[in-house]
Design brief:
The protein is an alpha/beta fold. Helix content is about 40%, strand content about 20%. The protein folds into two domains: about 130 residues, 2-Layer Sandwich (Beta Polymerase, domain 2), CATH 3.30.460; about 50 residues, no CATH class. The strands form two sheets. A five-stranded mixed sheet has the order 2-3-6-5-4. Strands 1-7-8 form a three-stranded mixed sheet, with helices on one face. Strand 5 and strand 6 form a beta hairpin. The chain starts with a strand and ends in a 10-residue tail after the last helix.
Length: about 180
């Protein structure tokens, strides 16, 4: 597999570094998803959207992330964090103001997400190495979304031989999304 590179514009790059550092300090297994992972796999510059990261966090450690983040440049709204508890999401902003990038820590609360973390791959971003979900796993996440600008076929084309279409299709069928398989 070719080395992945992700071109991330500021202030999103700073947000990626900051949340990655917080999770690494807490020894939390994590991988970037969403715009960052799409950028790594497609080569598209990441200059908009939220910074989304999937993290394997023990339930009793969940509160440590927003607490640490609030002391490291993040704006954390306690009411918003509480309102998204059932969604297994920790929302925040990196910096202050409405133009500060949103950062979402998605808690890997099911087997599918946990499996994705085990298959994460390294990508180079701003001189550092960050983990991103594998192209197949990103394609599964996109299959669950309403996003239309990039999809499974696009990721398969960009990832080349690293994308196992059969494994992707088997996973889709196993989670009830057989109608979204990639035709061979």
């Amino acid at each position: 597999m070719t080395e992945l590179r992700c071109d991330i514009a500021e202030p999103r790059l700073a947000a990626v570094r900051a949340i990655g550092d917080i999770l690494a300090r807490q020894q939390v297994t994590h991988a970037f998803v969403g715009e960052v992972a799409i950028g790594a796999w497609t080569g598209v510059r990441v200059d908009r959207g939220a910074v989304d990261v999937l993290a394997l966090v023990a339930p009793d450690s969940r509160q440590q992330i927003p607490m640490m983040a609030s002391h490291r440049g993040f704006t954390v709204d306690a009411a918003e964090v509480e309102a998204t508890r059932e969604l297994d999401l920790i929302p925040m902003r990196y910096g202050e103001g409405s133009d500060a990038p949103r950062v979402h820590v998605l808690l890997a609360s099911n087997a599918l997400y946990s499996k994705m973390l085990g298959r994460a791959v390294p990508a180079s971003a701003g001189g550092a190495e960050i983990p991103v979900v594998h192209a197949e796993d990103l394609a599964i996440m996109l299959s669950l979304s309403d996003r239309v600008d990039v999809g499974a076929i696009d990721l398969a084309a960009c990832a080349g031989e690293a994308f196992d279409v059969d494994r992707f299709n088997t996973t889709l069928r196993s989670i009830g999304l057989g109608g979204k398989v990639i035709a061979r």
